[in-house]
TrEMBL record:
It is found in: Cell envelope. GO terms for molecular function: carbohydrate binding. Residues 49-308 form the Periplasmic binding protein domain. Keywords: Signal. This is Monosaccharide ABC transporter substrate-binding protein (CUT2 family). PROSITE patterns: PROKAR_LIPOPROTEIN (PS51257).
Amino acid sequence: MKKRTILIGAVSLACVVLILLPIYQLTHTYRSLQQIHKPASPAKETLRIALISPAIRDLYWKEVQLGIKEIAKKQQAMVEVHGGYRGNASEMARDVQRVTSAKVDGIIAMGMDDPAFIQAVNQATESGIPVILIGTDIPNSLRKMYVGSDHVAAGRLLGDKVRVDLEKKSNSTVGIIGQSSDPMVAMLRIKGVEQSLASQKSMQIVKQIYSSSERNGTMQTMSQTHELLNRTSNLDAIIVSKGEELEAVTRVIEQRVGLNKIQIYTFQDVAQLTDLFEKGQVQAVVVDSPRKMGVESITHLLSWIRGEQLPLPSHVYTDSTLETSTGSRFRNEEH
């Protein structure tokens, strides 16, 4: 009797197992399928990108902002604009540090050849925040990439124009004025100019290179222009390495010899350029593509953050355009 009871119990248990096992398997399978098709956890809703601008109200940097915001809007990223009005390296370094502490997803900034700024860029990169420099490159920093003009190529483009304009004049003299305190832009442009003019053996090059301070920039430029004119009495052309210096240079030339005596060439976007062209005071200017810089910088930055482009190229050069007083335009294409 006892054996029979045990047997009945064993059979009953087996029946229960046989009944429950398929139910368990079906439940497990259903849960597994639910897990497979469960939506992935949503990614960070909006990427925060910080633009560190050296001159928020400047037309050039407004164009950069427009390019960045155009792409940011399409790709659902938010752009925070930080910066001042004078392009002060210490202020920009502090801005980089602040947005790094705020844990933005990426930083776009104009490069500044300043130890504090370089350190701030390096700290951001070491914190896992990618930094793209635009307009001015600092190759010895830990920036992810550089987007902007090839300043040496831009110098060659302007030098070619000067060479053509003066090729029929024998023993011509060209003055070059620039700031040694701006090695990543002014000095690279001057290098390109010299490369272009090197083929003109009869052309004399007179350089006036000086170190400028923020406080007395205009007065220094005027003083250096006087010094350049004192060094040579037969200057045929003058190349100004930065458009910001143009007003001070032209003021001195007008006082000393008259603007119609010397051909003037420069770089960058100059606010009074149209007026100077109409008056015949400037023969040619090489301008950057600030909006294109903004577009390219944020496009590459967002691609890197999202893992779509690894690694980033070291640099992307945007085109520079030579505009002349006669309305001609010549472009040094991006590469």
